[in-house]
Amino acid sequence: MRQGKYPFVIGFLIAPLALYGMFVLRPIAAAVQVSMTNWSGLSPNFDFVGLENFQKLLDDDKVWLAARHHVFLLVTLPVITIALALFFAFLLNMGGGTRGGMMTGVWGSKFYRVVFFLPQVLAVVIVGVIFGRVYAPDGSGVLNRFLELFGVDPVPFMAEYGLWSILGVLVWQAVGFYVVLFAAGMSSIPAEIYEAAVMDGASRVTIFFRVTIPLLMETVKVAWVYLGILAMDAFALVMVLSIDEGGPDGATTVLPVQIYKSGIRESDYGYASALGVALAVFTIIFAVLSLRGGKRNAVEH
Amino acid sequence: MSNHTDSPSELSRRSVLRRTAAVGLLATPAAGLLSACVGGGTEEPSTSATGTKSAENPLGVATETPVEVVIFDGGLGTKYATDVHIPSYKAKFPKSEVKYSSTQEVSTALQPRFASNTPPDMVNNAGSKLMDQGKLVEAGQVADLSDLFAAPSLDIAGKTVGETLIPGTIEQGTFNGKPYVLNYAYTVFGLWYSGKLFKDNGWTAPTTWADFTALLEKMKAKGITPYSYAGANAAYYQYLVILTTAAKIGGADVLKAIDNLEPNAWKNDAVKQAATLWGEIGAKYGNKAHLGLKHTEVQLQQNQYKVGFYPSGSWLENEQSKDTPAGFDYQVAAIPGATASDKLPATGLYAAAGEMYFVASKGGNVQGGKEYLRHMLSKAGAKGFTELTKSLTVVTGAAEGLTLSPGLTSANAALTAAGAANFSFRWDAWYKNLDDECRAATNELMFQGGTADKFCDRMQAAADKTEKKFSR
């Protein structure tokens, strides 16, 4: 058996590696190659232009605007989502107080779990269309009709608070998934730790901050990375929800929208690929940094 | 395009990292599409089939070769192609098959085919996802239509195809001296209103700016939004109106200078005055909420008598046919004169051939594609189009004998009143980046407290950065 080990291993690996190379690595390499050309996408011909596209990228105001929006989302989206998800997960798992020394969830927690998770299974475009009605700038919008009851004038959500409105939808959609993730993490924390804490007279608040969160740190970190990646995207929502695809006047634009506009609308695939390469590099740097950072703080149970 | 719908069971650190790479990939949708083409080099285009030229077959179409046409499925529908033009082609060439398909996303469906030199023969390049026509011409993908326009018309005896068209049609599709594109639908742009609303209130369409603002004031008093357009996706209807006013003040050459990217063309006094006037209309008579609405939403409000004037083209009546209440009676007014010293009369109109059709130069049946256009430009083909779409075509007199709808009748009357004072611009199709910038600048001016100076400065800055490729 031992002699046949390597052919056996290679035999299993060759197909997935070939597929990975063909459909993941090769397109990435091609994107890098195209980013150094002036290819219009409309004919097979192009010229090599070196780093000109990257130079243009640095001088493009809309790109910097989009980058600022990514930074905004990169900070707010994970913080708000994780805070809400931890809170809800705690309530679902332990919010009901103790029964026979065991922590229990609030009444109806199984039902809430499904409710929270529901947005996650909706397609992004559907979510966008739904929120188009929620945020509608006149009395026909759900939020504005509600505000009308209090005599508040209609608020033009997408026009004046575009990025915050989009952030709201992103949080709304993401939170359910992290509730489930954190709830799973919490249920894997040994019950005797809680039992000991309860016996020592710790309140629910103390238990949450002193026991649950430190023991969940690893899961939270993964959530952070994943939400950060989501903040680098937001393409579909911006396209469906925002005024004038990333407007008004670039107020909600993100890099993928700029890629779409320069590639598909303006037929400048070389420049679009340069933007794509830049975005990929940023995303990878972000992921590596956040996974490396804070490794020492891990608490084992 | 890229979204995240991962199943929860799979989340582990490793898969997160793996996805990081995947996101980078998803984020370059453009790159994904072209992986098949890059490095493919310059594949020789397949040679196009030709037949023998004769009086019956002036373009020399190969009688047995199929021809492939792609039609945009939008406001005009596709029935005009399947019920009128394709049967017409087949009747003439029974042995040739017409391969027909339609799409709502022209660029998505056809860009890869142009990139690999296997395009369809005839393309209707339209819709919000149309391909950049200027770049297509520049890339050598579009066939010269000179021989089509010189060929005899299919059913108008004694005239060439070119001679049957409304003057300016061929010019509208000309890039650097050669006709490449057929703009088929003849569109009249103006301010649309409900004949019924006006009749009930005893209002008449204004011709001077003072009359215009006085009327808007009366509408406001009635609780109607006097003037509106949709900021979310239709700002170009409004910049067309601003530039129409600029042309009336300073003459049509103002638009020509903008097209030709002449220095300070956007800072011309006429443009500045027009932007000032319209900025005031937006601030006084607009509705801030409409910045966040789409064109169909504002058009629906007009159908509900909540909006007075709405700037649009003559496709509006057909587009709204399902939502228009009985007796609404669409009417169009030319944009009122701006000052006492206007260079063009108040009846002057932005009217132009629109809706682009072109023949791919590297298709398998170039002459067949042109022949298809010849069938579209026959009197019968054009008449069928007007009947089915309520839109005029560029074929002179093709609407004769048809019973026109109220809106189309009104558009026809406006066109007659304008006489020679009709004009248009080309820069929005030539330079897509300027189109994008002007939408944002227009919304700023009309909804967000922008000023005329800022509008002109922004547009001039964008134009200065644009590399000149075309002129007229």
Helix content class of chain A: over 70%
Strand percentage of chain A lies at: under 5%
Q: Supply the helix-strand structural class of chain B.
A: alpha/beta
Distance between the termini of chain B: 38 Å
In the CATH hierarchy, what is the architecture of chain A at level 2?
Answer: Orthogonal Bundle
Number of domains of chain B: 2
- The CATH superfamily of the largest domain in chain B bears the name Periplasmic binding protein-like II
Rg of chain A, rounded, reads: 24 Å
Question: What is the CATH fold-level name of chain A?
Answer: MetI-like fold
Largest sheet of chain B: 10 strands, mixed
Query: Which CATH first-tier class of chain A would you pick?
Result: Mainly Alpha
Overview of this protein structure:
The complex is a heterodimer of chains A (301) and B (472). Chain A is mainly alpha-helical and 301 residues long. Chain A has a single domain (60-297), classed as Orthogonal Bundle (MetI-like fold). Chain A contains 13 helices and two strands, in the order H-H-H-E-E-H-H-H-H-H-H-H-H-H-H. Chain A has helices spanning 5-34, 52-58, 61-94, 109-121, 124-134, 142-149, 157-160, 162-187, 191-199, 204-231, 235-241, 255-265, 269-292; strands spanning 98-99, 102-103. Chain A has a two-stranded antiparallel ribbon. The longest helix of chain A is centred in the N-terminal third of the chain and has 34 residues, at 61-94. The radius of gyration of chain A is 24 Å and the shape is flat. The two termini of chain A are 40 Å apart. Chain B is α/β, with parallel strands linked by helices and 472 residues long. Chain B folds into two domains: 67-179 and 360-399, Periplasmic binding protein-like II (D-Maltodextrin-Binding Protein, domain 2); 188-351 and 424-465, D-Maltodextrin-Binding Protein, domain 2 (3-Layer(aba) Sandwich). Helix content of chain B is 43%, strand content 13%. Chain B has 20 helices and twelve strands. In chain B, strands 1, 2, 3, 6, 7, 8, 9, 10, 11 and 12 form a ten-stranded mixed sheet that branches. A two-stranded antiparallel ribbon of chain B has the order 4-5. The two termini of chain B are 38 Å apart. In chain B, 54% of the residues are buried. The model of chain B is unreliable at 1-45 (pLDDT under 50). The interface between A and B is large, with 70 and 72 residues.
